[in-house]
Amino acid sequence: MIGFVVRRLAQLLPVVLIASLGVWGMLYAVPGGPIGSLVGENATPEQIAAVTAELGLDRPVLVQYFDWLIKALVGNFGMSIFGREPVMTLIGQRLPATLQLAGAATIVALSIGIPVAILSALRPGSWTDRVLSGWSAVALGVPTFWLGILMILLFAVQLRWLPSASAYVPIWVDPIGAIRNLAMPALTLGIYVSGILARFLRASLVSELNADYVRTARSKGLPEHTIVGVHIMRNALLPFITIVGLMVANFIGGAVVTEAVFTYPGLGRLLIQAISTRDYPLIQGCIVVILVLYILINLVVDVLYAYVDPRIDYS
Q: Are 210 and 248 in the same domain?
């Protein structure tokens, strides 16, 4: 297992290098740049040239890239063009908020998706199955931005229970304040993802319920909760863990719409702001951090496989 983890971590560097080169090329392939926003519409050619030289954007693209790469290898992603702060400082301010939201949304999704999948799979074709399958379809079909707006109207405007704009409050500093600010964005993301998780887990459970070992366990007189909770769930969890890992990674890098609806200060909003202003160092830094987190989450998923199914050998 240790050798497998080391090999996967060794694969991290070439993947990040290739991704950073691709992102850098796409940034410079798009017309325009940050200079116009910095100097204004009435800037003279001399002012434009001075700002371009100050930012180092007058050098060849490959020279700029390799200069950035050498610094990035030691954790220095440069200065934000518009924020005038180190990129890692800006990312470090937003990343804890995104991780906290991702964790809360995952808890909501699992708390809803797993019971729905189990109840639906144990009674296939029944009215319970139809109702819960309908719930999954509704959860998948409702746009997250629309659900978020409805929650704001209900819980913030009408009932005045929760703040309409969600701030980042560390849960270890103020648990109640953190829950109040996380409740609506976490529910918005979690409800949508619960539909995906419920469908995948239900399909795995239905497939395992018809397996020979289940009939053997029942013929031996094992209680149904033992058969489902110990034997069936363990085999059904393998594809389910993959989907959970992908969803958590998606929360970290792609919860932009939800963060925008609730004005949540996460990494997704920071990346969108950087793209809109063509803040090249900040864009590159955000994408590299998100990519590293994706790879680490996939590594955790692979390690969990071995614990769920002892037949998997990574030696």
A: yes
